[in-house]
Amino acid sequence: MALSTESSISEFGNLSVGVGGGQKFHALGETETGEVIAAVTGMKIRILGMLFQQETDAASTWQFTDGSGGTALTGEMTGAAVSAENTTFTLPFSPAGWFETTVGTALYVTIGGGPVNGIIVYQEIP
Q: Which residues of the chain carry a pLDDT beneath 70?
């Protein structure tokens, strides 16, 4: 039994679900396009949640693919042009995941229009 916050953290560590470990995070930079999360041998990359934020009032688009020039994992998502900056797009946390790559391939994103920042929550699964 854990007796303090510190011992609880060391006892439970990074909670994991099955093989592959627990949830991981990737910060998406304004100009990042192409490979977002590197391939892991024998594992899929499952997206559990994300938040994107447009940095200008210009419309932005983004689409995720399975590997370089691979299969589309999502349709093209659009952040409409608005009169204010910092418009957000969110996929709330889903333990079942929103989409995933095939085994052993990287996750790629193509961003068009204005710059986008964000965070991706993912898990590596067999």
A: 1-21, 31, 80-86
- Which pTM value belongs to this model? 0.77
Tell me which residue of 92, 91, 55 sits closest to 74, measured CA to CA.
Answer: 91
Which contiguous run of DSSP H or E holds residue 6? Answer: helix 5-12
CA 68 to chain centre: 16
Rounded Cα distance, 78 and 54, in Å = 10
Using CA atoms, how far apart are residues 30 and 40, in angstroms rounded to an integer? 24
Nearest residue to 99 via CA among 47, 26, 37: 47
Q: Do 65 and 108 meet the contact criterion of CB atoms below 8 Å apart? A: yes
